[in-house]
Structures are given as C-alpha cells and as structure tokens.
Specification:
Elements: E1 4-5, H1 16-23, H2 36-49, E2 53-57, H3 60-71, E3 77-81, H4 85-88, H5 93-98, E4 101-105, H6 114-119, E5 132-138, H7 151-164, E6 167-172, H8 175-181, H9 186-192, E7 195-199, E8 210-214, H10 216-228, H11 237-249, H12 254-269, E9 274-277, E10 284-289, H13 295-304, E11 307-308, E12 310-311, E13 316-320, H14 327-339
Parallel strand pairs: 1-11, 3-4, 3-5, 5-6, 6-7
Antiparallel strand pairs: 2-8, 7-8, 9-10, 10-13, 12-13
Helix pairs in contact: 1-11, 2-11, 3-10, 12-14
This protein binds pyridoxal-5'-phosphate (PLP).
Length: about 350
Amino acid sequence: MIKADLRSDTVTKPTQGMLQAMMAAKVGDDVFGEDPTVNELEKKVAALFNKEAAMFTSSGVMANQIAIKVHTQPGDEVICDKLSHIYHYEGGGIAFNSGASVRLLNGDNGRFTADQVKANFNDPSNVHFPLSRMVSVENTCNKGGGSLWDFSELKKIREVCNEYKLQYHLDGARLFNALAETKESAADYGKLFDSISICLSKGLGAPVGSVLTGSQTFIDKARRIRKVMGGAMRQAGFLAAAGIYALDHHREELIKDHQKARTLGKVLEGQSYVKEVKPVRTNIVIFSLTEKYDENSFLEKLSEYGITAVPFGPSTIRFVTHLDFSDEMLEYTIDILKKL
Ligand SMILES: Cc1ncc(COP(=O)(O)O)c(C=O)c1O
C-alpha cells in the first residue's frame, strides 16, 4: 500500500545529495566561531537578505523566541495576529522567555493591516498600559492556511513601526514558499524587517535548523541569548551543510508543492463531506468537514488507507505538501479522497 504523510512539511528525510553534502562538511567548534560550514551558512543567509549578520539555531521556535527576547523587556507588549505561531505553538514562550505581554490582532487568515497596528499601539505616557515594543508578522501564515501577505501592506506596517519606534520581526519559517509565489526577493524583505527567522527544515527539506538574521548588534545580542537557552552547538556544520544544500537545491522545488496543494484543494472542494476549503496559496490546505465526519473519525478513515494528516480545530483538517510527497502519492490521495 502506498503511504502518504501530509501531517507537515517537517517530515522530509534528507536526499542522497543532501546526505553527501553533510558527510563532506568541514566542521569545527561553533561556540569558538570555528565551524566553517556554520559560518558559510550564516554568511549566505545574511547576504541573501542583505543583512549584516545571521545566526544558526536548532529550531524555528528558538529563532523566534530569541528575536522576541532581544527586542523586548519584561512587561513590554508584542503585537501579532491571533493565528500567530509565536502565540499558539511556542509553548507560551513569549511569557516564559521574555515575560512579555501579547496584543492579538483580528486579521484575515493571519494578515493584519497597518491601521490595526496603529489602533493597537499603547500610549507610552499612560502607565496603565504595557509598552508596545514590537510587531511580528508570519509569512506564510501556517494557521491561516499558508496565506500570503501583500507586500505593500508590509511596507505600510514598516512605516507605522518607524513612527512608533516599534521593532519589526518576520517569522519567515515558510518565507521561501511566499517568495516562490510573489515577485519580491529575500533582500526586499531584509530591507523591511529588523529581524527575520527562516526555517531550513520545512519546505526546504533539511533535517534540522533555522537561521535568524538582522543587524550585527542584534545578532551579537541574539548569540548571548542562544547560549543562555542552551542552543549553542559545537560541530553543527554537519547540519549547516544540509541547510546550504537545501537553499541551493530545493527552493525551486517549492512551487511543485504548491501545485500539489492546489490540486488537493480542488479535489476536496468537490467532495460532499467537505464544508469549506481555505484558499490554497502555497503548500498548506486547511478544510472543514460536514457532519459525516469529525476531525478524528476523518483522520482514522484516512489512516486506514495509509494517509496521515493532522487535526486543525473542531472538524478541521490540515494537509501540508512537501518534497517527499510524490506525484504517485498525490494520485493515490486523490483516489482515496474521492471514495471516502
Ligand atoms: C510559522 C512557523 N513558525 C515557526 C515554526 C517553528 O519551527 P520549529 O518546529 O523548527 O521550531 C513553525 C513550525 O511549524 C511554523 O509553522
């Protein structure tokens, strides 16, 4: 039986080419700054975004949480969308690591407007309110169904950040998915944001790793925090080599994941057990079910056919396409979806 894993784009295994690159990596002790491959990855990402510096982290959560810690002091407020990964899926890390408060905006599938940021900025002269310190954007937005931001709105938010002296962070775990669909470049994003986190271990297919990029001063502070979090690694070049390989070889592949997701979305729209499919813009398909199934019974039924996915709320399912979800798996999944 064919098996198809649609739980997440994090389930991919390294390809032969990637494994070879990892095996051939030159390594050293990165805590001494001596791992040439980690240094190469950090330089590469900083150059891509036209930033002064970058730092390898073990995960996307770590990269985001370090950024928030650098940008805030306890009691400050982080402005983000109500669907944000930093709020929902980072274990309460904003409170745990930074002691910061959160202002959730009611956006459209994870995207908010500059006017919403303005309206939610706290008057710093009023001692009742937490000090608004930073804005965090997620592109693409996971819980928003892989939604894409309009770059002109991101620019307007930058202007609001300038006006109110707010730091501007991008959770770009899936930014390369966004870049594959839009005309902007990584450098365009680098120009806009004070800090950007990217994940190598999602659509790009590396086994481990994220990179945080920003100014030299920001990354110097970030390195201290990574150390305190126990996130400074030694011969991490073996992992960084996978990241370099992923950036060089897998960015063009992302568009294929998007095509597959769109196909799945279309098939789902035609099924009687599907109530609604969120617009499919990248590699994530979120859909809700009619009374025929709830999320658990639907997933159980799918698993009988070797297809796995995750529940994403009441009667709601998420599919994520990725490098290891082949054309054959797509055809098979379509057949099964049509006969459920
Ligand atoms: C938007 C977003 N940000 C950050 C992360 C965290 O990445 P990691 O699982 O590597 O910590 C994820 C993981 O799914 C994510 O979807």
